[in-house]
Automatic annotation (TrEMBL):
It comes from the Bacteria. It holds the Pfam family ABC2_membrane_2. The chain crosses the membrane at residues 17-36, 190-210, 231-258, 290-311, 318-338, 388-409. It comes from Caproicibacterium amylolyticum. This is ABC transporter permease subunit. Keywords: Membrane, Transmembrane, Transmembrane helix. One of its GO terms (cellular component) is plasma membrane. One of its GO terms (molecular function) is ABC-type transporter activity. The lineage of its organism: Bacteria, Bacillati, Bacillota, Clostridia, Eubacteriales.
Length: 418
């Protein structure tokens, strides 16, 4: 343990690492501020979107207390009947004050109904205005039928995908939960913070061994009593502990600043209620936040272990840094190709985009977006094998932590023998 604390102390005295750690804290505060600004409210009086604290206050003042809680069929029918009353009186030219008082408070319910019963149409108010409220009796069954139709179109003939979707649907708590606020507005800042923390982790760890090779300090350390396997394990563990502490501090800063400002109750809304015909995640937005942070931590540690392994192979710190960042960015670039290339989710490209350490924190395709099913219902299939993408990301990173850790130990010891 004495060697471990000395190594940790050495890391904390390194100027480059201190700068990176300070930057991570500053970025956490900045991303928290941006997350609050990401909360929006469509102000019918001003006919524009407002954001930040003004939007949070407006959302909290909405007269929809009767709709907060379980999203029952009765609440859905009540919302639709309220809309019918307004639509029959004003048509599509609803006055701003009426819209604010009657429609804005029930807009999430109307959006959910529209997504489930009119998934391929865009007539908006006209469709809802002629819909019989009795049709809502099968809302949750109809919702999953739409999901199955999408899956059959995206993954034609793959029964494994349908079985997994049914299992996820069976885990969902029905009815869904609705709460005041806009928890989804903070998502972009959360995912961008995750990307930045993992990138910083790669930059902190990449030069670790290569710097000592380059300076010749490693030759001295190898000649000591514990300068072999025990030494490399201690160095690896010290780096990972430092990154875990950085992640914990930054996550707490972000969560406490954002959730206390937006309101913890806002995050009780079910993720599936936001995108009912895409999301299979049986989680609330609060649970989705913590699941995303868990995926980020695993991605951070897997990326760090990969960077440390690369560092044991390089004799120049600059080369180690460039290689680490390049490999970290590969799944992010692959995900952009996957998202823009149509239905190629069953390809090896999609598998590597999601399975490599950086896949969980991509900009366009990341763990949080896959939980919501923003652009597609996320499954990866290779032949008859298929898996829900969030499960793939969590399991892949967990395995990669162990694999790259052991490879780094082996590579360092082999370098010594050479």
């Amino acid at each position: 343990m004495h060697i471990f604390w000395l190594e940790l102390k050495r890391l904390l005295k390194t100027r480059r690492i201190v700068v990176m750690l300070t930057a991570s804290v500053v970025l956490s505060v900045l991303m928290a501020f941006m997350a609050v600004q990401g909360v929006t409210y469509n102000d019918p009086d001003a006919r524009q979107l407002i954001g930040g604290r003004e939007a949070i206050d407006a959302l909290n003042k909405e007269d929809n207390d009767a709709y907060v809680g379980p999203v029952t069929v009765e609440k859905l029918q009540r919302a639709l009947k309220t809309f019918h009353d307004v639509y029959q009186k004003y048509g599509q030219d609803i006055p701003a004050d009426v819209y604010r008082q009657k429609i804005s408070p029930i807009q999430p319910f109307l959006d959910a109904i529209n997504a489930v019963y009119f998934p391929n149409e865009s007539n908006g108010y006209q469709d809802l205005g002629t819909m019989n409220p009795d049709r809502l009796q099968n809302f949750y069954t109809q919702r999953f039928d739409i999901i199955k139709n999408k899956l059959e179109g995206q993954y034609s003939g793959n029964q494994s995908v349908l079985r997994q979707a049914e299992k996820l649907n069976a885990q969902s708590k029905v009815p869904f939960i609705f709460a005041k606020g806009d928890p989804g507005g903070t998502a972009m800042s959360l995912t961008f913070l995750a990307f930045l923390l993992v990138a910083i982790g790669a930059m902190i760890t990449a030069p670790n061994f290569a710097t000592e090779y380059q300076s010749g300090a490693d030759d001295i350390l190898r000649s000591t009593k514990h300068g072999r396997r025990k030494f490399v394990i201690i160095k690896l563990c010290a780096s990972l502990v430092l990154l875990a502490a950085m992640f914990l501090a930054c996550s707490l800063i972000f969560i406490l600043l954002v959730n206390n400002t937006v309101g913890w109750n806002s995050f009780q809304t079910s993720m599936q209620f936001s995108l009912p015909t895409n999301s299979l995640a049986p989680l609330s937005f609060l649970q989705g936040q913590f699941a995303t942070l868990l995926a980020t931590l695993l991605s951070l540690l897997a990326t760090a272990c990969l960077s440390l392994f690369i560092s044991t192979k390089c004799r120049n710190s600059t080369t180690a840094l460039i290689l680490s960042i390049t490999i970290f960015m590969i799944p992010i670039m692959l995900e952009i190709i996957v998202e823009s290339g149509g239905n190629i989710s069953g390809s090896m490209m999609a598998f590597f985009a999601d399975a490599l350490p950086g896949g969980s924190v991509g900009i366009q395709g990341n763990f949080y977006r896959h939980l919501l099913g923003v652009s597609r219902i996320p499954f990866v299939q290779i032949g008859a094998f298929s898996i829900w993408t969030p499960y793939l990301m969590l399991s892949a990173c967990s395995i990669e932590i162990l694999v790259f850790f052991l490879l780094a130990v082996h590579s360092y010891c082999r370098h010594q023998a050479t």
